[in-house]
Amino acid sequence: MWRCPPSSASWPKKRRRWSPSSSKGGSRKKSLGRKTIQMKTDCMPSPYLDHPILEKHVSEGGSQSGLNYAMASMQGWRTEMEDAHTCMPQLSGELTEWGYFAVFDGHAGTTVAQYCSRNLLDHILATGHVKPNEEPEQVKEGIREGFLGIDAHMHKLARQDTWDRSGSTAAAVMISQHYIYFINCGDSRTLLCKNGQVVFYTEDHKPFNPREKERIQNAGGSVMLQRVNGSLAVSRALGDFDFKEVDWRPQTEQLVSPEPEVYELKRSPEDEFLILACDGVWDAIGNEELCAFVRSRLQVCDDLRDICTQVIDLCLYKGSLDNMSIIIICFPAAPQWSQEALQKEAELEQHIEMKVAEIIHMMRSRDEDP
Asked: Region labeled Disordered — which residues (predicted)?
């Protein structure tokens, strides 16, 4: 994904406000040897702060069926916090054995992400396809219809009211007694760790993916700079109605589609934990690395909220410039805190400190600045 340092003038990560073929305000050429590059003359406000906002919002909870979860979010380098989330470890009514969790990564505003965090589940349940005696294909169809339904509803609201021009990705899971339903629309991501390995993860919806690019081109658009019409960095999202204005095309055939991909996976006693996170996390750390990190932390830390904040701090240290939100959901088979693992970590830290002290002493003996 396109990146720039926080100190430089840059464009919002999800949506650019111009494209090379239609930029306004003129341009100038700057010669660098034999190369010539185009530079914009008008200055846009940077979407990044001079210093990151490090305050974290955390929560935790559980269900009678043995699920435990925690979430954490942080604004980071961004000028606005556009992420939202939903954590419902135990639904009501006939679905008390079901849980629902979701992260929404907003862009170009907060309206769509916040609206979806409050209302998406209601639209899914209103389809009538999610029932205690579940039929996986019916549940998946209900989820799909719920996404299309809330997007159509928001489109009407956006035309009637003064909404911002925002959009949002969505990564969610619905958990029943027998299945985990993985739901993805955009480039937030969910993974399942089992027996210490990543056994499933959702695929990001990027404009340059062959299937996504074909739909974009069929809708009269193009993929430039790995973005839809050189502007939007995801090919599926809720909202983003500027990309959904071809009235005669179905919702799923617009430049940007609100249709989620939904997969079901049968639950296993060996399932350890799920991770849902926005791309501010995934841009900085890979699936296997994050799985290993969380698994190691579970053995030395008994506060799941602390582990979530440690992931965010790690991603910030590794260079993430985006808002960050993460939900970790633990099953009964998740690694447990142990005195042995804690002792090993203490010994490793002591060994590292000793080695660092030796290196500093050696450098100073050579009159070198450590």
From this structure: 1-37
